[in-house]
Design goal:
Blueprint: H1 2-6, H2 9-67, H3 106-109, H4 137-144, E1 153-159, H5 167-177, E2 186-193, E3 196-202, H6 206-213, H7 231-234, H8 245-265, H9 270-283, H10 289-299, H11 301-304, H12 313-319, H13 330-333
Antiparallel strand pairs: 1-3, 2-3
Helix pairs in contact: 8-9, 9-10
Length: 339
């Protein structure tokens, strides 16, 4: 107290000022020490999380190598361990966001990579072939039988008031009519016009089809239907303005011939295809000889260049014997057609 009283006033103020600065410095240092302690704690958490991540990576590497020995997963040697990480107050105070490692998906991480299609050759799968149906006694007897006196093919036309139905639905109706056992003898189904449906059948099978269709009360056989009639073209809006009778007649014949050629090409059974084409040309004279030659070359291209004419004697003689009343599979014969 005596010293305090003896000191000048400015000295006392200077002492109090220094004491205040010292207190402020102590408070600042205390805050800095607290911050350093917090950073050290956070750094320790990050080191622990890094150790856990490194151990997990090592486990996943072992699992990946067991699943695919040729595949090498990324090693953990490039990642810093806890012993390689330096401690210090310069670490960010937001580093605790990485303290909790994201959940690892072992199933996704350990999945081996797919082999490259360019470098890995996979075995080619051999396509399965359908087993051939055994030869029946009926087919063998038909092969050795004499040519039928009524051998040939014809169209049966029936009215279809419901318009154009899908061919698959028409074939399903054959089962109801009892034609499913010999469905392959109905070689083609088409629509020459909107309200008429045509069946291409063998002459020996016409009575069976007519009798089956007669089970339907509304079924009507159009016996006098003429597919080459010029009146059919008048129903087409494209020919409404055409008045020449000769042009309409020739145009109807051309359209009918093109339809017959498409029918022959849809059969997919070579000997039946050639037999039907021969019947269209030489029996009914619906197609020309030139059109028959072209069909013959499509059916037997290897034979066409060996002979000057496909109308050779061996072709005419063998054609009627290998196609007597043929029975082919419905999938090969009944092809969808709307013309």
């Amino acid at each position: 107290m005596l010293l305090h009283r003896c000191l000048p006033g400015f000295k006392i103020q200077d002492i109090y000022l220094r004491l205040s600065k010292s207190e402020n410095a102590i408070a600042t240092h205390t805050a800095q020490l607290d911050q350093i302690q917090d950073l050290l704690r956070r750094n320790h958490e990050l080191q622990s999380a890094l150790d856990i991540a490194n151990r997990r990576i090592a486990e996943l590497e072992v699992q990946s190598q067991k699943a695919n020995p040729t595949h090498s997963a990324p090693t953990s040697s490039n990642l810093p361990s806890s012993s390689q990480r330096a401690d210090g107050p310069c670490s960010s105070k937001w580093a605790d966001l990485a303290a909790t490692p994201p959940p690892a998906n072992p199933a996704k991480t350990s999945r081996p990579q797919a082999p490259n299609a360019k470098t890995t050759s996979q075995p080619k799968t051999i396509p399965k072939t359908k087993p051939k149906r055994p030869l029946t006694l009926e087919q063998l007897d038909r092969f050795y039988s004499a040519p039928s006196a009524t051998h040939g093919y014809q169209f049966l036309y029936f009215a279809s008031g419901g318009g154009r139905e899908r061919i698959s639905k028409i074939c399903a109706g054959f089962n109801v009519l009892g034609l499913h056992l010999q469905q392959g003898r109905i070689l083609d189904i088409h629509y020459p016009e909107n309200n008429t449906i045509g069946f291409l059948v063998h002459n020996d099978y016409t009575d069976t089809v007519i009798a089956a269709m007669s089970k339907l009360p509304s079924s009507t056989l159009i016996a006098d239907f003429d597919p080459c009639a010029s009146s059919l073209l008048l129903k087409d809006p494209k020919y409404h303005q055409t008045t020449g009778f000769s042009f309409l007649t020739s145009e109807a014949a051309r359209i009918f011939q093109e339809r017959l050629i498409r029918i022959v090409q849809r059969l997919h059974v070579l000997h039946v295809e050639l037999a039907v084409a021969r019947n269209f040309c030489f029996t009914h004279q619906w197609i020309t000889t030139h059109q028959y030659r072209e069909l013959y070359q499509c059916v037997y291209p290897e034979k066409a260049h060996k002979s000057d004419s496909p109308l050779a004697k061996d072709d005419v003689n063998t054609g009627d014997t290998d196609s007597q009343n043929p029975t082919i599979s419905p999938a090969a014969s009944l092809t969808s057609s709307t013309v």
